[in-house]
Amino acid sequence: EAQVTQNPRYLITVTGKKLTVTCSQNMNHEYMSWYRQDPGLGLRQIYYSMNVEVTDKGDVPEGYKVSRKEKRNFPLILESPSPNQTSLYFCASRKGFTYNEQFFGPGTRLTVL
Amino acid sequence: QKEVEQNSGPLSVPEGAIASLNCTYSDRGSQSFFWYRQYSGKSPELIMSIYSNGDKEDGRFTAQLNKASQYVSLLIRDSQPSDSATYLCAVKGPNQAGTALIFGKGTTLSVSS
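YS: structure for the whole thing
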């Protein structure tokens, strides 16, 4: 089954404690993205990757890091989380840059105390 | 700042009626337009894409695009309670790598039986 998986699905942490949210896809897609979704602000892209070792900033990259060492994995790293990073995070993947077949993961709800 | 505007709703329609969801965008260079459906607590799911002016039909869904007026709409015919969800309009700029998908904040649709 074609899918995007994320782990963990729920996470409560404290300010400053480094964390990683994993994302994996089994569709051999080149493009992967991380979004955050906040009430009243909608979905905003944090980072995206066009292929292995190729990443770039989206609209709201501050406080986040990513890596793309393998085609299937695209982890999101928060090195020093702060309460304003409390949000619902989605990983997504697509075959090309045209977005006509973009698949989202199930989401990770992060709370930073 | 590229913007995508949607009426947040809620839009309430009775079962069997036509639901009309609207979206306007600010970037005249936008080339690709998408509608996503998001059930509460779930990830967005692509339901329609449209690239040229006019109508595109897929089952009970019709997407309409008017680039001159910079609006895109989604019609849902014979609305069902299972259509109750938040509908996200998303717009992409010129067809090149690295162009982000800009999401509207979404319109909540409620279909009553």
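YS: worth flagging: The two ends of chain B are 40 Å apart (CA to CA).
IM: good catch. Also The longest strand of chain B covers residues 85-92.
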